[in-house]
Amino acid sequence: MPTLRNKVALITGAARGIGADTARALAGKGAKLVLIDLDAAPLQALVAELGDDVALAAAADVCDLPAMQRAVDAGVAKFGGIDLVLANAGIASYGSVSQVDPATFKRVLDINILGAFHTVRAALPSVIERKGYILVVSSLAAFTAAPGLAAYCASKAGVEHFASALHLELAHLDVAVGSAHMSWIDTPLVQDAKADLSAFNQLLAVLPGPLGKTTSVQACVDAFVHALSRRKRRVYVPRWVGPVGWFKAVVTSRIGDRAVLPHIPRILPLMDQEVAALGRSTSARNVALDDVAVDPS
């Protein structure tokens, strides 16, 4: 049976949510951890919980390739190399394309796409040397779009194809690459959107079938740990996300649009009004971390 004992896993977005709970689960299976996040305080608390013989904290912005390289180098120096990569860092913006703050829109693309590239680029020499595995976190949003979340949807479609191209590049080197596709997970990202915007809650309510349902973090963690141990090509959470991907052409056709289109003239202007009232196009948490990224001092 595959084992994670003494494997070294690098996780971005590790300070809370899926990243933190996956780190705990991997530590329970004997893995060593290189944990990266911009939010230093909860990251350090997590390492204190797990033990510094098990985990290394590196406060770094995934948009900063030299910082990511320093974090990887520190992990390699401490644990000898990197076997597994979970490119998990990601944020979302709120608001229509005509109203969303352009800088926030760009920040989403930078973190979600360039951040995945920087994570992989920095860790790749060690992963190749150890014939490891890379799991890039995409989303159900790669298969079906949502109004008011254009940056998030575009970025998750982008990282899916990034992972697919990477898979082709690395297969002959015995390095495996997968992409993970989840529906709404009860993470800080989704919790913040629900708290900030009644329009987001209304959007979830009109999405057809299970598309508007929120799944537990634990279900996602279980799937990620299984994928990391088995070097899975695709990860779907819940499992019904897989068929949505298979039928993407139908989901994004006029047939698939029918359930949502009638509600957009009501929900999207409300979202834009609420975003304007907030004075920000993303969560307060992300705004605070953006300030850290601009001025690390």
From TrEMBL:
Q: Which UniProt keywords apply?
A: Oxidoreductase
A matching Pfam family? adh_short
| Oxidoreductase among keywords | yes
Q: Which residues form the Ketoreductase domain?
A: 7-187
CDD domains in the record, alphabetically? SDR_c
- PROSITE patterns given in the database record: ADH_SHORT (PS00061)
The answer to whether UniProt assigns keyword Disulfide bond to this entry is no
Family listed: Belongs to the short-chain dehydrogenases/reductases (SDR) family.
Q: What is this protein called?
A: SDR family oxidoreductase
